[in-house]
Amino acid sequence: MKKLLTMVAVLSLIVAGSAMAAGNTNTGCGLGTVVFKDTQNRTTLVQIVEATTNGTSSNQTFGISSGTSECTQPKSNVQNERLNEFVQANLDELARDISAGKGETLSTVAELMGVPSGQRDAFNSNLQAHFHQIFPAPGVEFAHVVDTIVSVSNQG
Amino acid sequence: MRRRSARPFFFFPLLLLLLLPSPARPGADAYLAELKGTAERRHLQDDRYWDILLFYKRAAGGRKSLVDDPKFFLSPDGKRDPGAELSATLDAMFDLSPAPPVRCRFPARYEWLKETLQIDTARLPAQECPEFDNTLRAINPKSASLIFAAGHMNAPASMFGHTFLRLDSAYASPLLSYAVNYAATINPKDSGIAYAFKGIFGFYPGYYSILPYYTKVREYAAMDQRDLWEYRTNLTETEVRRMALHIIEMQGVYMDYYFLDENCSFDLLFLLEAARPSVTLTDRHNGIFVTPIDTLRSVLAAGLIDNVVFRPSTARTIRRKAGEAGEVEVGMAKSLAYGDVEPSTVLDGPLPPQEKARVLDLAAEFTQYLYLKKEIPKDPYQVRYLRILAARSTVGGSPPESRPLPVPAPPESGHLVSRASLAGGARDGDSFLEIAYRPAYHSLEDPAEGFNDGSQIVFSEAAVRWYPGDETVRLQRWDLIDIVSLSPRDDFFRPVSWKVQTGFATREFPDGVESLVYEVNPGGGFAWKVPSLGIVSVLAETDLAVSGRYDRSYAFGMGGSAGIARQVSGRWGVLARARYVYGVLGDTERGRRFTGSLSLPFRLSRNRSLVLEGEHEEAPSVHAGTIRITWNAYF
Predict the structure, then answer these.
(1) How many angstroms separate the CA of residue B591 from the nearest CA in chain A?
(2) Which of B252, B270, B340, B475 is most buried, with most CB under 10 Å away?
(3) Residue A19 lies in a domain
């Protein structure tokens, strides 16, 4: 009887724990979520890792966007989660690379967008020429950045 | 895998399932028994790969796993009984309860047993793991790198450097790779002493974590100003996949973290062994310390590394760009970053377009640095940074770079860190012989290659001196800790230099009496790099000496020191130091002391050096000169 009670107690704890986890699945659209996407039984550690990565990207170092853990997804590119995630987490570096027309962050974006290597220079200078459209004002949302990069590249 | 929405409906049958014995499928019991029989016959529980995956190491009375987390073991005796754990793992493969299948929880173990025992998976219950499959697909491991983050001289905790692994995918950009880090989870409320105690005696749990590599680049290269060395391994795709499976199964599993040996660096070696079991990395260490550089060396010695890429810190890049620009341009970039002038003044100014681009690039990088260092708040940063970039985007092209950024000597090219010394010399005409030993790490007179300029970290160096004249042997000094961090200041960076030294030292008292005193000597100040002189430093210092020979048993003095440290050539160095301390408390008379010294270190080879040294000391009724020649061997 004692054993059964313990078992029931443990089980209700597990169920309660899962319920809490369920309420907590959306820790943000940040970095960790891609690797740990759709995890149903996340350990506390994973939650911590996600919270930390989100914290690092948005609160401390993520300067030029509006800074809230925004979950507005870009319109034109919903299928490329990797691109969205990368742009969101590296917005400041990307802005600098686009302004200079070169850099590792920019070439990573080109790779994620599948720009052939022969067209990279044109891609870079096209984005550089449209810097004002891509980054119109402080507090820009990453969704706008991705959408504008995609539409500008399609025109160019 | 359970579906979340279905859980309430499954709840009741689930409870029943746990209360009843699992219903075996026809033939499953026989197959399980057959597999167990084969495993036993082939002594799989003693297989090296099983040891690697379960972290088993030889211990009193058999073997014991280094993993301390009970949920890592399927058998209650798993930590000490490899056979029981193996048998429990096979049992779990046939488990019909709704717990996550073994393939999801322990994918590396599952794959290895499947291959080794040629298990027919059709005869196992379904092993569906959408979560695990997604993780593996996102990481998409193809190759792997070992990353060494060089020490940041101004942070003592980082002085030894740090290592972590990187799983590289099919993408060409390393920024899309994932970093695998092993670190202790520290309670931020712990005091410094609790931290050190818990760290050394294994009271903190250590966890492996997986993070996008760009977050590590930002953490080390941009925020902490530490250079990164990326050592590309020659592990094959199959080997890297094996390692990735093992990393995934270690998520959320803790091992007690020991700062000195079972640390961030050492525990990565297990992962490399899981990738290529034919190399032995985790049995080699037999010292008190395992430092990241030891880890790197053993991985290099095992032939796992093909090539290395240097990723300079932001500070190094900014210094480099500033060095290419003229003085006026550097001044403009700084004014832009501090918001003293608007980017339009640069655009409308007389500079040629390439120089405008150079100024704005430098300004942008420095503005972001100031923000990361919290020297400018977010709101003005957003506005200023975007204005600089917007201006930059109107100046096409990029400034020419005259030559690629010079790559410093890689960390493994440095001397080994334990040191034994033999010295001969004379003090006030009395000749002596001296032997000394320290277990770690690097001092300013050691060969500089592969170490940070101007940084010294010495642990527990003891010297014994023998004067043949009076046939006495005595402990000359025992430095418990002697750290010096000289960080040059320049146009952009204004670091503080500091030192802290404590230990026993021999001091001379009036009437020629020598006695051991305990001293504590911290200092802080500034350093600059002067082209013709090297690193010039000026520090304010205090000096506490405790000994029964002082009035009131101690002398506390305040004063300062000045020094020059210069690497003259690949072989010769020069260190000149002068220090004066004035007694202010305790035995103020004998607290007064001046020392001046000049050392000329000469590098014989990577692990041998000679040092010529002269020192003069002035204190009340002490006027002594010492000359000494020292031969150092590093091992």
Answers:
(1) 47
(2) B270
(3) yes
